Amino acid sequence: MRSKLVKIEKMEIVSQLAASISHEVRNPLTVVRGFLQLMKSQPMPKETQERYMHIALEEIDRAETIINNYLTFAKPTPKKEEVLIVGQELERVAHLLQPFARMNGVHLIEKCQPCMIIGNAEYFRQCFLNLVKNSIEATPIGGTVTVSCSCKGEEVIVAIADTGIGMTAEQISRFGEPYFSTKEKGTGLGAMVAVKLIETMNGTWKIDSKIQKGTTITITFPSATTRG
Ligand code: ADP
Ligand code: MG
Hints:
By secondary structure, this protein is of the alpha+beta class. The chain is built from six helices and seven strands; from the N terminus they run ααβαββαββααββ. The strands form two sheets. A five-stranded mixed β-sheet has the order 2-4-5-7-6, covered by helices on one side. A two-stranded antiparallel ribbon has the order 1-3. Bound molecules: adenosine-5'-diphosphate (ADP) and magnesium ion (MG).
């Protein structure tokens, strides 16, 4: 009986997720369609064409982000657990986001001690992509985002520090809430997924922030050497 109930609940979540994905992805698709139609229907200067293409590409990226986040969230089975070399994984995330940081005029620095945790590489990457991307987006031109990790006793501590706009107490308390976003084109899904993935990997998180000074998100994982 109980397991049946759990099953029904799970199915409800899945159908809610499916509904959310189609709803959220429809907006960027509509935008892309609109611009393509415009470009097809009338001649226009090259600059205008390029601007439209840029917007269309951005919207396609947005749709992809939404799908990735939902899929990570909806994955029904626990993923393979493996030993992760945290520095290597964070380096990969930093490498992936380097063009985005450059585009935003933000210095992205990564400095890590050799530490290991148990987790899933795909989850880890998705989680930190979301968090570091938020930090870059919160940071004005010329600012810095520093991703670091250190080992402290039986714990591995990852910190993402930015010199960005900071968060109010209310924003901090709503961090990770689905659809909470202060951005014009935000999805409010990135932090929710990140928080969920941190918990899946037995981690905890906290936020220190000062308005107009910056935000530091600190994530603590049990070290791989102390488990099993
Ligand atoms: P989105 O990025 O689409 O807005 P997220 O779930 O990724 O959604 O983030 C939710 C909100 O958390 C953001 O809109 C922003 O207000 C806040 N936030 C997250 N990270 C930071 C940060 N480093 N500095 C300031 N605000 C942040
Ligand atoms: Mg985000």
